[in-house]
Automatic annotation (TrEMBL):
Protein name: Xanthine dehydrogenase family protein subunit M
Annotated keywords: FAD, Flavoprotein
Membrane-spanning parts: none
Pfam families with a match to the protein in the record: CO_deh_flav_C (PF03450), FAD_binding_5 (PF00941)
Alphabetical list of PROSITE patterns matching this protein: FAD_PCMH
């Protein structure tokens, strides 16, 4: 592991000021991803800023009856929160489907959103990886790519984002609150936080250097049933091959509204807003579910080892949507 300096921030303003004065600084909270990457030499920060004791661990209602989740709220606490369980069960389901109990007890809300891909070639410094070392190539394109993206990839990278929580938050139309060293506060829709790889897969988010996530805000949940379904290689701790988050309601044989987000298929939680809009007033039928699944995966591309993900994603979406709209 490369030597690094360390300091602990006492408040948010101090944390972002520390980050702005160190070009190679990283924030650390739970450290469940960053420390592994540092041990492997994939992440090589020269300075760590400990933000784990900042007063950002509250879950509170907002004036519009939504929910504000502090960046330091632990995944286990968020999954167990009564408001989350009763009003945002989709989020609780996704959190409990991700990681082990021990990791959920350490992992923070902001850290979960910013965790890096689990691509084998990203972790292996002996292999080319444009995300780890820009311009070196992508070994996954013709390598072992069973876990990799079928949507939104590029000739430079086909890695996926590993978070279950982010997929649920995408379906819930979450926003991320941030703070920069100049005092600027931003609210970034979650759909705009993570970036598709394009020609610059090392640029993974829309955050500037030193910009820190302080909270995630959820609007009031829409009416309807919330369902999160994750398909993985084993029932215990494993990342998603495909996951689907759906919020939908139906009445009188018609779908009233639906939101759909998919995980395990792209470098970010995958939303298809045009397909969601087309579902409004559509028949609540098996045929609609099948047509929606086909449309959502239109243009998907496999790379050999992950070809199976395309029919798997269609089946998972079709079944999850059917569950969400079935009569109570």
């Amino acid at each position: 592991m490369q030597p690094f300096s360390y300091e602990r921030a006492e408040d948010e303003q101090q944390a972002v000021a520390m980050a702005s004065s160190h070009p190679e600084a990283r924030f650390i909270s739970g450290g469940t991803n960053l420390l592994d990457l540092m041990k492997l030499g994939v992440e090589r920060p020269t300075h760590l800023i400990d933000i784990s004791r900042l007063p950002l661990a509250r879950i509170e209602s907002t004036e519009d009856n939504g929910l504000r989740i502090g960046a330091q709220v632990r995944n286990s606490d968020l999954a167990a929160d009564p408001q989350v369980r009763s009003r945002y069960p989709l989020l609780a389901q996704a959190l409990l489907a991700g990681a082990s109990g021990q990791i959920r007890n350490k992992a923070s809300t902001a850290g979960n959103l910013l965790q890096r891909t689990r691509c084998y070639y990203f972790y292996d410094r002996n292999m080319p990886c444009n995300k780890r070392e820009p311009g070196s190539g992508c070994a996954a394109l013709e390598g072992f790519n069973r876990m990799h993206a079928v949507l939104g990839g590029s000739a430079a990278c086909i890695a996926v984002h590993p978070s279950d929580m982010a997929v649920a938050m995408a379906a819930l139309d979450a926003s991320v609150e941030t703070l920069s060293a100049d005092g600027n506060e931003r609210r970034i829709p979650l759909a705009e936080l993570h970036q598709l790889p394009g020609e610059d897969p090392h640029v993974e988010t829309s955050l500037a250097h030193g910009e820190m996530i302080t909270a995630v805000t959820l609007p009031p949940p829409p009416a309807g049933r919330q369902v999160y379904r994750k398909v993985r290689d084993r029932a215990s701790y494993a990342f998603a091959l495909v996951s689907v988050a759906i919020i939908a309601s139906a009445s009188g044989g018609r779908i009233e509204h639906a939101r759909i987000a998919m995980g395990g298929v792209a470098a970010k939680p995958w939303r298809t807003l045009d397909i969601e809009q087309a579902l409004s007033a559509a028949p609540a039928s098996a045929r609609t579910c099948s047509e929606t699944a086909e449309a959502a995966l239109e243009g998907a591309q496999g790379y050999g080892g992950n070809d199976f993900k395309i029919p798997l994603a269609k089946r998972t979406l079709r079944h999850t949507l059917a569950t969400a709209i079935e009569p109570v």
